[in-house]
């Protein structure tokens, strides 16, 4: 069975969701042309500058987690948009797969609980 056969047998709603996710993943590098930082992705220093203070809880948890692809960037020196783009795509793919696996797991638990 080919990928297209599997795709054609999918539920219409699920197929639409897959198409939307693919389109959104292709559009991910658009963020590279925006100035400043993405909304809600501020570090304590940027939050201090924007609103004048850093909540105590955020200050305490600052070093707790280190992102695997910090700044959506692959290891190495990437100064231009074309060299930064692969990191954005990898981040999008990892995020979609991670969220999909979590949703799948939660769905399995809910189905098992309802049986």
Q: Please tally the helical runs, counting DSSP H or I stretches of 4 or more residues.
A: 5
Specify Rg, calculated over alpha carbons: 19 Å
The average pLDDT is 84
Quaternary? single chain
User: What is the string of helix and strand elements?
Assistant: HHHHH
Poorly predicted regions? none
What is the general shape?
A: extended
Helix content: 55-70%
SSE class: mainly alpha
User: Could you describe the largest sheet, including whether it forms a barrel?
Assistant: none
- Number of β-strand runs: 0
Separation of the first and last Cα atoms: 31 Å
Strand content: under 5%
Main location: membrane
Pfam family, one: PDGLE
Keywords: Cell membrane, Membrane, Transmembrane, Transmembrane helix
InterPro entries: PDGLE_dom
